[in-house]
Design goal:
92 residues
Length: 92
């Protein structure tokens, strides 16, 4: 599987595990999803955003890297309510 496929597959798993629309999770250039129960985002800048690179996303999704370590090191940028995804990780 390619890195792009891995990112898309794990983002889909996140949506299954944490359905909702309160947090936008971005893994450029491969994908972005809305997840986590709460208020729905429909226009403009989302209230809660998580953004990271594909390598870091795959590492936290598979448990190779903890969510806390990724955030503390700056490899994951998370701002807004409900952006602590540690309760949903690892995904695989």
């Amino acid at each position: 599987m390619s890195q792009k496929d891995d990112v898309k597959r794990t983002l889909a798993l996140l949506v299954e595990k944490a359905p909702g629309h309160s947090v936008e999770v971005r893994v450029p250039p491969y994908g972005a999803v809305q997840a986590v129960e709460g208020g729905r985002h429909t226009r403009g800048t989302p209230r809660a955003v998580v953004e990271t690179d594909p390598e870091t996303w795959i590492a936290v999704a598979t448990g190779e890297l903890s969510w806390a370590e990724a955030v503390e090191s700056g490899r994951v940028r998370a701002s807004g309510e409900r952006t602590d995804l540690s309760a949903y990780l690892p995904l695989t």
